[in-house]
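User: Sequence in, structure out. Go.
Assistant: Echoing your sequence, followed by the structure tokens.
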Amino acid sequence: MCGRACAAGEVCVSGSCTLSCPGTQTACGGTCRDLQTDVTNCGMCGRTCAAGQVCSAGTCVVSCGSGLTNCTGSCRDLTTDRANCGMCGNACAPGQVCMGSACVTSCPAGQSSCGGFCVFTASDPNNCGGCGVVCPARAGATSVCAAGTCSFVCTSGRADCDLVAGNGCESTLATDVSHCGRCGNACPARANATATCASGACGFTCNTGFADCDGDASNGCEVNTQTSATHCGMCGNACTGGATCMAGACSRPNCQTVAGIRWCYNPAACGQNCTEVCAALGLPLTISDAAWFAAQDTMAECQALSMAFGLGSVVSMASYTYACLEDLPGTHSVPAAPTGQLLCSTYSGCPAEHRLRSDNYGVACGPSSRVSICPCQ
């Protein structure tokens, strides 16, 4: 309001008189305090150090650091402290500063008195160009003052690549894919891969299901290991014997011709009878029961069928009702394939039964499921 004057040492801020503290001091309860050394306001207003402790750099400690002296609980530099110049309690007169532990009336040439201390305003980041002008902190950088103007220097491994002072040295050169090792060095995109920057060097990691099998970085991860017959599941793993690569695993074709008969299984399902298997593949099931039975009722025939589907020569021959042909119960996943021993039957009625039924009929691919092999022709 008109006519209201602030008291000595106060300034008017937003219509209110506020205590104005010099230099690095802070207003605490109407009194200016140095939070770096004040034992009753150590680090923050109202924080009092315990008995026997002193306040050093805003922290309560047992003893003062090198070059500092305990003056009634506060760590003081007797070479520059106006209130304790040369010895605790020896205060310099108004207008004097403490230089080399002695009170003097003026600062040396090139220095200015700021809050009772002689400083180089041309280079002091806390009094840059004038008393109390503090150079702002920047991310990943050290604030500096040169010729009375604030600037900053990037710390090791950081860089100001966008030239925006407000966010400091925003780039970490060791890991930044846009500025890898140096500003502007963007790691190139590679086929089926994600660009990486490690220790300042560009690289890439292959996306899931792809691999760099030729070692040529320029074409990235050129192989789909889920479908490549020469690199199935991993580089160098070639599928042999007519097998194909499905979901990263070598798999033989689901139809094999043995003794002139085309035998097939449905890789999309388990627990099916032969009518369902052949229908799912769009193939006919017109073979006679007699021809079907005769093609698998001996150990030699059963072993030939087992070998054709990559199951090995160990088979099971018995008078099974449905096993004409099917695998042992086990855990299957789509795309399904026969596993374990192949079961063949010496029971002449098995073909008729297997047209409509199967062991573990209707059990979806998973635990205790089975895959039927049928003469789809």
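User: And one key feature?
Assistant: The longest strand covers residues 141-146.
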